[in-house]
Amino acid sequence: MAEEAAAPAAEFAPAEIEEFKESFGLFDRVGDSQVGYNQVADIMRALGMNPTNKAVVAILGNPSADDMANKRVNFEAFLPMLKQVDAMPKGTYDDYVEGLRVFDKEGNGTVMGAELRIVLSTLGEKMSEVEIDSLMTGQEDENGSVHYEAFVKHIMSV
Amino acid sequence: MQKEFPVFSLLNSALNTISAALLIQRWYRQHVARLEMRRRCTWNIFQSIEYAGEQDQIKLYNYFGFLMDHFTPASSERNLISHIFRKNEICLDTEWERYFCYKSIEVTKSYTGPHLTFPVTFCGVSKLVEAFKHKEQLHARYVLQLLGETWRLLRTFPNISHVIACHTKPITICGDLHGHLEDLLLIFYKNGLPSSDKPYVFNGDFVDRGKNSLEILLTLFGFLLVYPNDVHLNRGNHEDHIVNLRYGFTKEVLGKYSVHGKKILKLLQMIFSWLPLATVIDNKVLIVHGGISDTTDLDKIARVDRQKYASALRPPKMKSDSYLESKTTETDLDEWKQVMDVLWSDPMPQNGCIPNEVRGGGCYWGPDVTEEVLRRNNLQLLIRSHECKQDGYEFCHNRRVITIFSASNYYEVGSNRGAFIRMGPDLVPHFIQYQASTTCRELTLRQSVGWTERSALQALREQLFVHRSDLISAFQEFDPNNKGMISVTHWASTTERVLNLGLPWRVLRPQLVSSTQRGMMDYQQWIKELSITEPKLEISDNSILDTMYKNHSNLETIFRIIDTDHSGLISFKEFHQTWELLRSHLKTEISAKAIADLAQSIDFNKDGSIDINEFLEAFRLVDISAHN
């Protein structure tokens, strides 16, 4: 999977921006029309993007741990960040299937759940055990295998 | 052509693995974030509909209060209104004792429910709890006897209970239960039954909404009688007979006790007014149901004659012969505010103190008010309930305020956990969370979000449905050529303006509107699709139907007030008078003749009176609301 070049940032339609603003408001727990730096990644994801945490930290200007915990941002400042992330490749159904196929040792459409768990907890932006359990619940068959095309369809259907 | 270099292919494979991991991780985190947003949306829907209902009721009550203050004695509606603000009958306690006497009620051999001996013992109450667990019902005789003892006991208590925390006996503090017996049983299971070694504080809202409000009360009162120094009950805003008319408790009691229900309700009304208003632990931790305001004064609260406030919704009148000529003094109003604030207020993140317009009673108070009130009264922590929290509890105001809520699955199965607090002499709160489930299956996060969401959307569709005439008129302002189309942006802003629920309509749109074309939608079609009930009556006038649907809860409240002997029937005349009164409040133009016709058509038994339940049933929306 080669890294794709980022497409030029497209403009959001005014109606879209109104909707983003509403969603932004849902995450404001303080009532100052802002959200914390540490919420920015999740809001972007809620709006249909899926950046890595690293990408978001870079877009926020590489803030310190203290800043991440305490600084807040308003919608006007957030919108250009969202645009940047929107321009990043998001990953299609095929990408995910290809990504999982990497672990398909026997080429039979399944991956070992146990292997997937190890990879997700040790590589990339590591997931916690709770997160992994939540992801994998009900996905492994009696042999501990995951049929990944069905898996991807299932998770993309939210 | 690529040569086969083992190192390169290993590296490539490792990179692929990491890319794959990153992709899955990114995707998973997006999935969780989207669920979280749906969950918040759903929560907002439930909460705003709930609070709008409370506000509605208070507005209605205020309206009648206004009428009371302004009606001349010659007015023919006077009798009707004085029903609503029935004088607190000035009886001697001995007269009440006679009225509530249980002794003439016989427990026949055919009764298979639990028996209670008096004075109650720990054993007796534990057996009662077991019986309730098995869905048995306590005989009316025992109910009245238990309530009578409770009333007598509560009259000896001060307005503010004082408790000392002790090493060997940590104190357990529970929040709203709202008739959820399964949650109370879960708390007892996890924490143990109340006893002198296990003191409890129950912070109000024991009743309404859930199906077992009465069983909860009987249980709590039972333990109170056995351990009066170790069980502390605070009054909540739902310990109020007017609120109970709307939110289900009155109906529950009358349903379970058809013969003696009226007496039981009257006795409960008095018990509620005698419930203490606050509990203080070690002079350091204040526990009240709602909260505080900038004028909260514990000394004043301690001196109030609390039993004057049978319903906190209206300032009490001075006792006098002519109900309509009495006046409330400034002291009365000041005291009334102290009580309302403590039962109805909610915290807000911003500094200051403003009236709580959303609920219609009490205040919104800020962190500066918390600091000031705590400092003034030498306290270090405020524990309150009143608001449902997803995790059962929540800190705010720099951790100086805790909200504790003990009814799990409050809005819907899977909507939230319940929690209780355990506190030792160090006054550090420890939280225990739980979730009652009637099915043993554990829902995945996604399933429980989906379930709750479906229920919330249904409740929301009902709200949209009952406001459909207003919505259509408002949409037409943006559709001057009458094409039946409106932009999504206008749809969202207009819907908010009409419903006033503060909801994220654009986010909700895909769930509420089936299709749009290039940002436009067919609103007439949309309204048609919302239609969720077939009228059960032959009424051609849609505006009457709409008005009935919209004011269903208000009508129910008023009818139950008018029906003083709880017979379930009101006369045509009373119905007509009620309508006349409501007309100006609801700003509706339905004529007297239309109402008379309506009354005729709903006189199902043709006996000159209207059966309240049949009437309400005729105008009930077929799909169940979130609160049934």
Kindly report the spatial arrangement of strands forming the biggest sheet of chain A.
1-2
What is the tally of helical segments of chain B? Answer: 23
Structural class of chain A: mainly alpha
Task: Output the structural class of chain B.
Answer: alpha/beta
The largest beta-sheet of chain B arranges its strands as 1-5-6-10-12-11
Structural description of this entry:
The complex is a heterodimer of chains A (158) and B (628). Chain A is 53% helix and 8% strand. Chain A is mostly helical and 158 residues long. Chain A has two domains: 14-87, EF-hand (Recoverin, domain 1, Orthogonal Bundle), CATH 1.10.238; 93-157, EF-hand (Recoverin, domain 1, Orthogonal Bundle), CATH 1.10.238.10. Chain A has a two-stranded antiparallel sheet with strand order 1-2. In chain A, strands 3-4 form a two-stranded antiparallel sheet. In chain A, helix 6 runs antiparallel to helix 9 (148-156). The two termini of chain A are 25 Å apart. Mean pLDDT of chain A is 85; it is low at 1-6. By secondary structure, chain B is of the alpha/beta class. Among the domains of chain B are: 88-318 and 330-434, 4-Layer Sandwich (Purple Acid Phosphatase, chain A, domain 2), CATH 3.60.21; 542-621, Orthogonal Bundle (Recoverin, domain 1), CATH 1.10.238.10. Chain B has 23 helices and 18 strands. In chain B, the strands form five sheets. In chain B, strands 1-5-6-10-12-11 form a six-stranded mixed sheet. A five-stranded mixed sheet of chain B has the order 4-3-2-13-14. The radius of gyration of chain B is 27 Å and the shape is globular. The N and C termini of chain B lie far apart (71 Å). Chains A and B meet through helix 1, helix 2, helix 6, helix 7 and helix 8 of A and helix 1, helix 16 and helix 17 of B. Chain A: Residues 15-50, 91-126 form the EF-hand domain. Chain A: This is Myosin light chain 3, skeletal muscle isoform. Chain A: One of its GO terms (cellular component) is myosin II complex. Chain A: One of its GO terms (molecular function) is calcium ion binding. Chain A: It comes from Gymnodraco acuticeps (Antarctic dragonfish). Chain B: InterPro entries: Calcineurin-like_PHP, EF-hand-dom_pair, EF_Hand_1_Ca_BS, EF_hand_dom, Metallo-depent_PP-like, PPP_dom, PPP_phosphatase, Ser/Thr-Pase_EF-hand_contain.
